[in-house]
Write a structure and sequence with these properties.
461 residues; alpha+beta; Beta Polymerase, domain 2; Poly(a)-polymerase, middle domain; four-stranded mixed beta sheet; 16 helices; 43% helix
């Protein structure tokens, strides 16, 4: 628990930060006017038996300054077929874009929806078709319960707590662990709202997070933590936050263990010493990014390698898991050839798929391959026969190892092997054959994204 002086310091700090991140009265009024205008436009398009419901952080009063994107849910009667729901929902969204003279995109969740870019308002408006339900038992698709989330939060969060949700979101965004996207694996907005409701305040939430031990089950509906490993096993997760409107759903299912662990570290740092630098970071200059990167690598005595390839124009939810898996395969291959990587970081930068490899400087002319137990004769004989051209064999304890001439002397040689196609590094949509390899040099167009991807995992300015 924090002492009275730290608690007072944190309260003053929160108050100051809110002035920077909470929408002003003028912005809130403008957002309300935009919601009303677009709602009126939709009412002129959508039949009366389809209910228009505003959802998301704007509807729940937890959005940050400058983030006033609007979610419109078009709620169809439950008897409507899925085909008609999608067909009509898309047509209504496109009609809104036409009425507002705005461009649109078709996006995909469990089924397609329309994102309208209303540029003169400076906002995005998602038009999402769903079935009208009273409880999760009636749910036809996962998006149907979103309006129920809004009802739950709006019926329980006080204004002070909505501000504390904003503070939590701001903190998480600054440390790149906010958002439900697959590539982030962070805290979605609804999870932030539930955690503030469950603990009552941001301060209490940070204190609790600083002491988290896994496995853990949180039930915001009854505001209790449940000690039942069976629930963790049922959801297949060590960290479960049960959705109060759907007890069969873990709201934290998309939160990676790494993101949770990074948040626990943040919470411990804040509880130990409430400091606004955890929210704002150090002073920073974009012009200094190349120098920061170079100085860090030099000080650590490490090499930074980038492998850059083009990725297809597919959704991030399709491309990102493949890129992450290829990064893991690269790590495994490098290890097999006797080298060590400290970190392999996959990321997307526009239409570029990048794997950044941080590794110690190393030159090897041989590698040691681990074999089987020497007393398992058939396996040992097979291993020695397979590696008959080895420089020699080593017995370590009861294990036999083969000392082989190295096919690659440096990691750079290996990365060139992936680029030339001598070594395979490919998935359904991505191939690193023909990729560009940069060692201890970051192309100007990748400086920004490379810096921020490294900053997520390292202590850079």
């Amino acid at each position: 628990m924090m002492g009275a002086s730290k608690d007072k310091k944190a309260t003053a700090l929160f108050k100051g930060i809110l002035k920077d991140i909470k929408p002003s009265k003028v912005e809130i009024e403008a957002t309300t006017a935009n919601v009303n205008r677009l709602t009126t436009a939709l009412k002129a398009i959508v039949p009366k038996d389809v209910e228009i419901r505003v959802a998301g952080s704007v509807a729940r009063g937890t959005n940050l300054k400058g983030d006033a994107d609007i979610d419109f849910f078009l709620l169809f009667e439950k008897g409507t077929s899925r085909e008609k729901l999608v067909e009509h929902g898309l047509s209504y969204g496109k009609a809104l874009a036409k009425a507002e003279k705005s461009r649109f995109e078709i996006k995909y969740a469990e089924h397609p929806y329309v994102r309208v870019y209303v540029e003169r308002m400076g906002i995005k408006a998602d038009v999402v078709p769903a079935w009208k339900i009273r409880s999760a038992d009636e749910m036809g698709t996962m998006v149907d319960r979103t309006p129920l989330h809004t009802e739950f939060i709006n019926g329980r969060l006080a204004e002070r707590q909505r501000d504390e949700v904003r503070l939590l979101k701001f903190l998480l965004k600054k440390h790149n662990i906010y958002g439900a996207e697959v590539k982030v694996g962070g805290f979605p907005g609804y999870l932030c709202e539930l955690l503030i409701y469950h603990y009552g305040s941001l301060m209490k939430m940070l204190e609790a997070a600083a002491a988290y031990r896994l496995p853990l089950v949180i039930s915001p509906d009854v505001r209790k933590e449940i000690n039942d490993i069976g629930i963790n096993k049922r959801f297949g997760s060590d960290f479960v936050v049960i959705d109060p409107v759907d007890s069969d759903r873990n709201v934290a299912a998309g939160l990676s263990v790494e993101s949770l662990a990074r948040f626990v570290v943040l919470a411990r740092e804040f509880v130990r010493n409430p400091d606004k630098r955890l929210f704002y970071g150090e002073k920073f200059s974009h012009a200094e990014m190349p120098r920061y990167l170079s100085a860090f690598m030099k000080e650590c005595g490490l090499n930074l390698h980038l492998m850059v390839t083009k990725v297809p124009d597919e959704s991030e939810d399709t491309v990102w898991p493949q890129l992450r898996k290829l990064s893991e395969i690269l790590d495994d291959q490098v290890s097999r050839y006797g080298f060590e990587t400290y970190m392999s970081i996959p990321y997307l930068s526009g239409r570029n798929g990048v794997i950044a490899v941080i590794a110690p400087k190393s030159v090897k002319s041989s590698r040691l391959l681990k074999g089987p137990d020497i007393f398992i004769r058939n396996a040992a004989d097979s291993f020695m026969s397979k590696h008959k051209d080895a420089m020699g064999f080593v017995v370590r304890g009861r294990t036999i190892l083969a000392l082989e001439r190295g096919k690659y002397q440096t990691i750079e040689d290996m990365l060139d092997g992936f680029s030339s196609g001598k070594l395979q590094l490919r998935s359904k949509h991505i191939s690193f054959k023909g990729s560009k390899v940069y060692s201890n040099r970051v192309p100007k167009e990748l400086e920004h994204s490379t810096y921020y991807e490294l900053k997520k995992r390292l202590s850079l300015p």
